[in-house]
Design goal:
Order of helices and strands: HHHHHHH
Shape: rod-shaped
Protein name: Putative membrane protein
Pfam families: HAAS
Keywords: Membrane, Transmembrane, Transmembrane helix
Helix content: over 70%
Strand content: under 5%
Number of helices: 7
Organism: Deinobacterium chartae
Distance between the termini: 22 Å
């Protein structure tokens, strides 16, 4: 392999560091094999490297695919948000807005039942309502409704975020196909 090819693979490896070692090695083998096949076919190295594009962009494509393939879990969701927030200009606005909305809805889902329980237990100095305490019989359906509404909105926010993440990953994949 020539020096420009080695340099390209080295730069790619640097940008792939967030991947687990086995995934990173697979990607490097795949691209190395692609370079070797092109060399044997007589394709100029400069042309192959131009088609592959920047090592940073190619690495982002593989990272995006990795983040979408791995199971989310609680910490995985926030890792996805962090990754896709750094993918471009729209990510700087869209992803933090979705993350803030999701965090707010999660807080509401957790806080409302606690507030309702405190209201039912008659904790002094605590009431649900604006100005006047809300009657207990009214607090139960309203608290339950608020919790369910927050849950439905949080689920919709996650679906919207997933669609955005898939669209960004598809954009990177299309760059990788060139």
């Amino acid at each position: 392999m020539t020096d420009p090819a080695r340099q390209y693979l080295h730069d790619l490896e640097i940008h792939l560091r967030p991947l687990p070692p086995a995934e990173r090695d697979d990607v490097l083998r795949e691209i190395g094999s692609h370079l070797e096949v092109a060399r044997r076919a007589g394709t100029p190295l400069e042309e192959v490297l131009t088609r592959l594009g920047s090592p940073r962009i190619l690495a982002r494509a593989y990272l995006a695919d990795f983040h979408l393939r791995t199971p989310a879990g609680v910490s995985g969701v926030w890792r996805r948000f962090a990754f896709f927030a750094t993918t471009g200009f729209t990510g700087l606005a869209v992803v933090p807005a979705l993350a803030l909305l999701l965090a707010t809805l999660t807080f509401i889902m957790l806080f409302t039942p606690v507030a309702l329980l405190l209201r039912l237990l008659g904790v002094p100095g605590y009431f649900i309502g604006f100005g006047e305490p809300m009657p207990v019989l009214l607090a139960i359906p309203i608290g339950t409704g608020v919790t369910l509404l927050a849950f439905v909105l949080a689920r919709g926010t996650l679906r919207l975020a997933h669609r955005y993440f898939c669209a960004v990953a598809a954009g990177y994949r299309s760059l990788r196909q060139l």
